[in-house]
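Hi, here's the filled form for the chain we discussed.

Project: internal
Contact: R.S.
Residues: 127
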Amino acid sequence: QVQLVESGGGLVQAGASLRLSCAASGRTFSSYAMAWFRQAPGKEREFVAGISWSGRNTYYQDSVKGRFTISRDNAKNTMYLQMNSLKPEDTAVYYCAAGGTLNPNTVMSDKIQYGYWGQGTQVTVSS
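And the returned structure, exactly as it came back:
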């Protein structure tokens, strides 16, 4: 079992930055691929960014490329999402997720591949 707790959300103006954190406990964090998803009201949960458990590979949704950066610190059992140049359309509940994979360099973007989820943190960007 892996327990995930997100933090760092809030209300900001367009153009501002936020850094989300996802603290993991339980089984070995470093052997799980991780990702951030988000869900806006009335919409499906969508992939934002993912990172392999080695930290070597990352993958982003097109709409956040160049603005968001995903990273992880396996020694601290923590994953991060640095969000810059925020836009109103980034408003959503952001969830972190963990998924088992044998390949240390695999990045997964389908939510069905993730077996562990946090409770989410709200990010609201005003125009």
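Let me know if anything looks off before we file it.
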